[in-house]
Amino acid sequence: MMQASPGTHMATLSQTLQELRRQDCQVDLRITASGHLQVRGHQGPYSPRDVRLMWTRRFEGQSNPGDLAILYGLRLPDGQTGILVDGYGPASDPKVTTFIRAVQPAGPGSSEPVPESWEPRFHP
Predict the structure, then answer these.
(1) Strand partners, 53
(2) Which of 18, 98, 99, 118 could be bridged to 114 by S-S, CB 3.0 to 4.6 A?
(3) Is the pLDDT of residue 123 over 60?
């Protein structure tokens, strides 16, 4: 689980990805052409009902315009937490947006608590 608190600032997208991987997010995810979630290389495909949204982290490009992105922490059926990266705003991928909007957040109504840093952030 991402251990940074809501007030913690991680300067760039690449630094945040490096820190998440150093903790417990070792799985890189992608959305397939058919709109399913897949672990890069092999596992999957997963539908939105197979995973839970654990947290999000948005980068607005203030320190680096290339950092206009959003990270999604998704809990996979095997218990691993994977990272799905998407562009933010005009750079977003409609397939990612559609998938994420259909994913249930962890927390009320699920067996997993929502971390303090969890904030739902969806973009058009």
Answers:
(1) 74, 105
(2) 118
(3) no
CA atoms of 54 and 84, how far apart (whole Å): 11
Average pLDDT taken over every residue of the chain? 76
Query: Can you tell me the mean pLDDT for 57-78?
Result: 80
pLDDT at position 50: 94
- Residue 48: strand, helix, or coil: helix
Instruction: Name which of 37, 33, 32 is nearest 53 in CA terms.
Output: 37
Long-range contacts of 11-14, Cβ-Cβ distance < 8 Å, separation of 24 or more: 11/63, 12/59, 12/63, 12/64, 12/67, 13/59, 13/64, 13/66, 13/67, 13/69, 13/71, 13/85
Q: Give this prediction's pTM.
A: 0.73
